[in-house]
Specification:
single chain; alpha+beta; Porin; 8-stranded antiparallel β-barrel; two-stranded antiparallel sheet; 10 strands; elongated; DUF6089 domain-containing protein
């Protein structure tokens, strides 16, 4: 090997040795934002009303470990309320079956997620060499605890009650499925932007979908029981199962009589002649429910420990 080759190799090794390595660091964050449910009571074919008609809140906290300039891992706990109500379709003939079903719910979700984050713009060599703006995408897995509730009719006090124990589609009774689980999984995916604010502080804004593994975030997923006699001895469960003829919308207190009369006149004159809301007929669409979260985070950069060179 000639002198010039040796010199070139030596210079490459020196440059490699001098190249600064990324120093991993951690951050913690707190955030607040909005939550929106998508499912039988909030169909995608009505996007504006679905997104803005029943928007609710979420709060979240997370811990993030920044492993490389582009990749991070995050663990987050999120509390989110989602809600839906068929009454919002009042006076909209294209959604008469939704209005006639007259279901509603609210559900306070507890979500524990682990996600991987990819920075589209890489970070610098350490926690304090961050770009002014970092766009990122994320995806992962989540475990979800939920418990849908609804208001009872006036004759039962108009109180919020848990729906899963009632078995509104016959669950838990002979010949029907077992009660659905109140623990499920979800796949979170989304994108965001992180803005450098101060030396130890960032502000980030993100939005993402959570695709759940259950169709019962809203308690609506299958069929009405074939016969109301399945609820013998449980008048509340029967009342909460098929609410199509209630004159008052329980959640908001709205009068349904004019809407019901119009539907009966236009579609056959009798509730029994209108498909889709009678005992034994379909109550839900069969697709899994999902929800959409937005959040503004305040992120604190945990100051890394200073590494002192060893004494010689």
């Amino acid at each position: 090997m000639g002198y010039s080759d040796a010199q070139l190799r030596l210079s490459k090794n020196y440059a490699r040795a001098r190249k600064p390595q990324f120093e991993p660091y951690s951050s913690v964050a707190f955030g607040i934002g909005t939550s929106t449910y998508f499912g039988e009571l909030a169909p995608l074919k009505d996007p504006i009303n679905t997104v803005f008609g029943m928007m609710r809140w979420n709060i979240t906290g997370n811990y993030t470990r920044h492993f490389t300039p582009r990749f991070s891992g995050r663990a987050a706990l999120t509390l989110a309320r989602i809600s839906g109500d068929d009454y919002k379709f009042n006076g909209r003939p294209q959604f008469d079956n939704n209005f006639l079903r007259n279901a509603h719910f609210r559900n306070d979700l507890k979500e524990l997620s682990v996600t991987a984050i990819y920075n589209i713009i890489p970070e610098g060599r350490n926690a304090f060499d961050r770009p002014a703006i970092v766009p990122y995408v994320f995806g992962g897995l989540a475990i979800l605890a939920h418990n849908p509730k609804a208001r009872t009719p006036e004759e039962f006090g108009n109180e919020w009650v848990k729906l899963q124990p009632l078995g509104t589609e016959g669950q838990g009774r002979p010949g029907y499925a077992k009660p659905y689980s109140l623990v499920s999984g979800a796949i979170p995916i989304g994108l965001g932007f992180r803005f450098r604010y101060k030396r130890n502080w960032d502000i980030s804004a993100e939005a993402g979908f959570r695709f759940s593994f259950t169709d019962y975030l809203d308690d609506v997923g299958g069929y009405y029981p074939a016969n109301p006699d399945v609820f013998a001895g449980d008048a509340l469960a029967q009342a909460m199962s098929n609410r199509s003829l209630e004159p008052v919308a329980a959640r908001k207190g709205g009068d349904r009589t004019a809407g019901l009369q119009r539907i009966f006149t236009e579609q056959g004159g009798s509730p029994d002649n209108i498909p889709g809301n009678n005992w034994g007929e379909g109550r839900g669409g069969g697709n899994k429910d999902y929800y959409f979260l937005t959040a503004i985070h305040l992120n604190y950069i945990i100051t890394p420990k200073i590494k002192c060179p060893p004494l010689r």
